[in-house]
Design goal:
Layout: E1 2-6, H1 15-28, E2 33-37, H2 43-47, H3 59-63, E3 73-74, E4 80-83, H4 88-97, H5 105-115, E5 121-125, H6 132-140, E6 143-149, H7 154-171, E7 179-185, H8 192-205, H9 218-222, H10 230-233, H11 238-253, H12 258-271
Parallel strand pairs: 1-5, 1-6, 2-4, 2-5, 6-7
Antiparallel strand pairs: 3-4
The structure holds adenosine-5'-triphosphate and magnesium ion.
């Protein structure tokens, strides 16, 4: 089981779009995925059409009220589960800040999943602010997946997140944490700028940058208003194709962990014609 924080302190770079659509694409590939919406804005929750659920978030488990298992809900998508967000979460920032183990509360409640085989992957959709919730996500995660928008100042934003990761490491909250992957989002092939930004980020971060680049498409921005992932809303479009490719690359990059081992099993079954 791996815990991956989808994080970038910059707003509107495609964190939630990536968390939701990568989650659905991995679930399609039979990975058991738990998506935790850590943002009080609840965008991941509504993007999956789950906004009607109230009082169900990670808030209570975080402040010590309830077991995390009670908050996991199934989604329409097989193999994809969610812990939604609600406005209570905004209050969690203040309440947790007063607690002694305020940086590692999420790490502690997620540690139960490391012992069993319930999920192959836990994806944390982080809020853009550098608050307690995002710090808890970085303290709990095995790695960070950082979406970067193909725009001016992309590198400046990356420098900031690198610094935050160093701070979490230095604080002792998680000495293993690293940026495991960078995914370039909202690539516009009609402009030279997008290509230049991708080249520049690759020069600095090399193989950590995913080969898969997510294009800017109107379909990707429309899908959440229908409460659907792009794989349901426009399954044969460029956005769905890109997130499926990202899922394949994600699985490949996580060999030889359990996430990748499943693939071998699936392939061998396919080759047997089953
Ligand atoms: N590849 C894309 N093409 C077109 N629109 C996109 C794409 N990716 C994301 N968007 C749109 O851009 C906006 C910001 O995306 P998203 O909500 O995923 O970013 P975020 O980093 O989670 O934002 P926040 O920091 O507020 O949580 C949304 O309206 C989303 O629908
Ligand atoms: Mg978001």
């Amino acid at each position: 089981m791996k815990i991956v924080a989808i994080a970038n302190q910059k707003g509107g770079v495609g964190k939630t779009t990536t968390a939701v659509n990568l989650g659905v694409a991995l679930a399609e590939k039979k990975r058991r995925v738990l998506l935790i919406d850590l943002d009080p804005q609840a965008n991941a929750t509504s993007a999956l059409g789950m906004q009607e659920v109230e009082g169900e978030s990670i808030y209570e488990p975080l402040v010590g009220g309830t077991s995390i298992a009670d908050k996991i809900l199934p989604t329409r998508v097989d193999n994809l589960f969610i812990i939604p967000a609600d406005l209570d979460l905004a209050g969690a920032e203040v309440e947790i800040a007063r607690m002694p183990d305020h940086l590692t509360r999420l790490a502690r409640i997620l540690s139960t999943f490391r012992l069993d085989e319930t999920f192959d992957l836990v994806l944390l959709d982080c809020p853009p602010s550098l608050g307690i919730l995002m710090t808890n996500a970085l303290a709990a995660a095995d790695e960070i997946l950082t979406p970067i928008q193909c725009e001016y100042f992309a590198l400046e934003g990356l420098v900031k997140i690198v610094r935050v990761v160093e701070q979490v490491r230095d604080s002792g909250a998680n000495d293993q944490i690293e940026i495991g992957g960078i995914v370039m989002t909202m690539f516009d092939r009609r402009t030279n700028l997008s290509g230049q930004v991708v080249d520049e980020v690759r020069q600095h971060f090399g193989s950590r940058v995913y080969n898969t680049v997510i294009p800017r498409t109107v379909r990707l921005s429309e899908a959440p208003s229908f409460g659907k992932s792009i794989l349901e809303y426009d399954p044969s479009g460029a956005g769905a194709g890109a997130y499926r490719a990202l899922a394949r690359e994600f699985i490949k990059r996580h060999a030889p962990s359990a996430i990748a081992r499943e693939t071998e099993k699936t392939h061998s079954l396919e080759s047997l014609g089953k």
